[in-house]
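stuck on this:

***
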Amino acid sequence: MNKTIVSYGILNFALVALLFVGVRAQDLTVRHIMAEPSIAGMRVEGEKLSPDGTKVVYLWNAEGKMPRDLYLVSTSSGTATKILSVSDLPVPSRTPEKENKLDYGVDIRDDFVKARENQLSNFEWSPDSKRLVFSHGGDLYIFTPGERAKRLTQSQTAEVGPRFLDTDRLLFSQNGNLFVWNLANNLITQISKEADQQKFVAVGNANPNKSGLLVAYVVSDNSKQRALVVPNFLGEFVTAGGPRRGWSEQKVMVVFADGSRETPFEIKLPKPDGVGNIRSLKWAADGKSLIVDRVDKDLKRRQLFYVDTVGGKAEQIILVTEETDEKWQAPLSSIVEPNPKDPDQLFFASERDGYNHLYLAKLEQTDTRPTRQAETGAVASVPDNNERVATSSDMSAPTGKVNITQLTKGNWQVEWAKWSREGDRLIYLSTEGNPAERTFFEISAANGQETGIANSEAGMRNSPQINEDGPQMLLFGFSKWNRPEDLQVQRACGTCAGINFPRTLTESADAGFMRRRWSVPKFFDISSRDGKKIPAKLYLPARHDPKAKQKYPMVVFVHGAGYLQNVINGWNNYYREFMFNELLTQKGYVVLDIDYRGSAGYGRDWRTDVYDFLGGKDFDDHIDAIDFMVANYAVNPSKIGVYGGSYGGFMAAMLAMRAPDKIAAAAALRPVFDWKNYYASSPGYTAQRLGFPDKNPEAYRRSSPITYADKLQRPLLILHGMSDDNVHVQDTIQAIEKLIRLGKTQYFETMLYPSENHGFVRPESWTDEYERILAFFERHLK
């Protein structure tokens, strides 16, 4: 592969430490860290780049408080203006609350709740970049910046965010089904009818073609799912709600957007083998052929289908690619994009060589018919109810053969990719150069020539967007380890004339926060027992001496999700823990954070090394890292603690119960104690890693901390939200009962949070939780 790399202005961490001046963060307390407004400021949300690339809207509040307002910023000047607030809109109607004279208890709808109700959401640009559609309080609104927003519906429920089919038509969902609203004549047409809440049948994944003539969608039969009961103890009476979880039977449908055909076309894909799901639907450039990405064989097989001429007499289903992973399919392999100009080309991602890379697929065509063309974007005439979508006579016919070429290659992974508007280049975001950072590149589809897209500094780039019309721009979030994420924009081109460094559009971090001088983390690798390298991030107390006779206590932070990356030069969801780790270093602790086996960012083998045993190699990585720290950083082997939430809580519990010689105290937040419970809550995630409980009971037994409850002999602090519908509080309740029966009272303590779900939201809950953790460590590690 030919490659030309643009040079980058990268500041290394040591230089950052020298240049970053300001006050020390020694005044931090847990209450400072968890306060609202946050001392780190408020991040922007819901950002949308206009189709012409000239402007961006986003949600933010200058005071760092809820609710968020809508801002508009020019991509050329960087000038931002607040253009809409919740207070500018009618107050959504509510059922009047009954007067309660016994109101001295918990106020269910306090100011915190009210500030989060009826947020502005689901903003989408019109194709001409002049208007926006959005949701508020269950109603749809049309908004032209500079004018008053117009409410289209009253007291209705737009369950799926609205979007423009063209400048005059909206696609939206109400009560589970799809509708099209013609703004020119105010006509509303229902185009799907399969959704049935009583029978648990849902319609989703709606995707219109470019002209807005056809809409593809997925019908999911969820009737075999089970209700996950989540009690609410806060009201006068205990109530029970909760989502349904489990497997679905799915089929792909295509319908005319004008409702001219009574019944949709069903895409007759080969019957799936075992459980799986439709990952995406994408229209080819001709607007008549559909690309369907499906996973089945119990999440181990991925099949990519090309449905040529949907609903036509010559409809043909072509298997573009099929691959099976004996463990499970990578989430990143869901990257699929049809060429916007060539109906016979698409790219897809795959881990088939060990890392997630891009592959170009070309459908072979007969030469007996004219070359197929891309859609113009204009709305075509619609056949009558008896006609199909297209006839086979207006295009060449595919032979069924597909030629596949690997475009990117190396010991790094692609995490996002899109075609250029011309369909000759692919723009992608990858870990190339440094797995702790993300950088944009472009590659020629014709010859594989790769070029870096210039950037001014090293760091993390997330959630890219690219526009379709006008000069193509990249909108993305940029951050560093000590710099919260803000929006940046730049040309989506590595070979354009001149240097196109990014422009920062938002500065959302609090000025006082940016003046703080944080402990600079050390990034390095630790050797594992099986010869692999464990990525690590280390925080040291001031004037740390690796040869000190007086050894240091250490706390290990375990990131959640299992499949997540936290050893990065960037800001992430664990910003509170970043500040808490700083507080720990101020109190004399060494703090270690590793990307254990199963973490994202390091290729297929690292991702799947946890297969069949959660708490196997990922557990060993923590033990190996602890031994390394004891040997090299003057860590006291008898004063080591661990904390983490979700998967991190699971690992903290495993370490407490299975490694009493290594761990002196563990705090497990919202932990999984029994993986068969999590299978009921999130069967896809669990089956990927452990298979099915009835088929692989031993994997569930050895992977569940509750199995080892009898071995607990070190202090364990358990904290859990009682409204958690991800890791159900059932896990903690069962663990408590087993520990009580085992006579382990002296070794554990528990705190439950009645109003909190999996991700806490109230600052009072965050504060209570982490003040308990801090006191717990101070008591047992000092």
Remarks:
- DSSP finds 13 helices and 47 strands in the chain.
- The domain at 523-573+580-781 is CATH 3.40.50.1820 (Rossmann fold).
- Residues 763-781 form the longest helix (19 residues).
- The mean pLDDT is 92.
